[in-house]
Structures are given as structure tokens and as C-alpha cells.
Amino acid sequence: YGGDSSVGYDSQGRLFWTFLLTNASVGGFDVFAAQCNPSTGAILAGYPVNLSASAGVTDDYVNHFNDKAWLAVDSTATSPFRDSLYVVWTDFTPARTVIRASSSANQGASWSKALALSGGGEGVVWPSQNTVAPNGDVYAAYHSQPGFASNNPDGTSGKIVVLRSTTGGAT
Predict the structure, then answer these.
(1) pTM above 0.90, yes or no
(2) How many Å apart are CA 33 and CA 17, to the nearest integer?
(3) What is the pLDDT of residues 102-157, one digit of tens each?
(4) Which three-class secondary structure state does DSSP give residue 121?
(5) CA-CA distances (angstroms) from residue 34 to 6, 42, 114?
(6) How far is CA 115 from CA 47, 88, 102, 157, 171, in A?
(7) Cis, bond preceding 127 (omega within 30 deg of 0)
């Protein structure tokens, strides 16, 4: 089973879908991406692709537990990164939660090595979302909760972090 779906169209009218699927061997979730027929919703041949494995963050339910993936697609015809796909998600690791990001320039067939967007000292970071501006800049946002009192947020230290990439998600 799975969940946490998100969808988007590129400038060519191609439909893309990201979602979580259970990694049956360990019980956690991996992030998957698929190109779908925009008329029927059928997954096209060659998909789905295990995005988290391609990005180097396969769920093993010990060192990585992937959650809440979100897809953004650059659909602006004049963007220097036209038709690129961008995904952000939360990786629960033993030491902390990490917001990760990966991108694809080939319709989701392969994905870049995952970048860690969040840093140490941010506490629990969850969930994340991203979008692409008309000029191709990629924005990612997430909630950071460093302070807790009796296992609950302390009500004063939470914040929203917004990051921007001007390099098509490379940095």
C-alpha cells in the first residue's frame, strides 16, 4: 500500500505522479514517480521509478523512513529548466528528520542524488512542499520544530523555512 500522491503537468502536456509505496521487505515507504497517460491515467511503460532508490535514499526502516513526497514540475516554456521534475520529502533517520530534494531532467526516468535541504539544530522538520517560478527558480518550504516540552511543540520555537534554487535544483 502507499499514499501521499501529488501530480503535475509539464509544458508538453505530459502527466507525472509521485507517491509512496510500501517497501515490503522492510515495512517502510519508498518514493515513486510515474509518467501517466493524461487521458486515462494509466501508468506508461518503464514506470513507476523508485525515486528514493535512484536518489540514494532507499527506505530500510532503520536508517531511512521516507514520507510526504511532493512533486513540482517546471511547465514554463521559456524556463531554462523547462520540463524538469522536482520532488521534496521527509526522511526520518535515527538521528533526526531531514528534508530531501531530488530532480529529474528526463521525465522521471532517473533522479539526481538527494540533497539535504534541512540542517542540524532544526529539530523535527516535517512536512515539505515545493513549487517552480516562471523563471525556473525552485522554491521549497518546510516546518521546523526545534523546541519541545513534554513531547509536544513548545509553542514558541517553530518556524517555516523557505529555500530557493536558481540552478534547477542542483543546489
Answers:
(1) yes
(2) 6
(3) 999 999 999 999 999 999 899 999 999 999 999 999 999 999 999 999 999 999 99
(4) coil
(5) 11, 10, 18
(6) 23, 9, 6, 25, 8
(7) yes
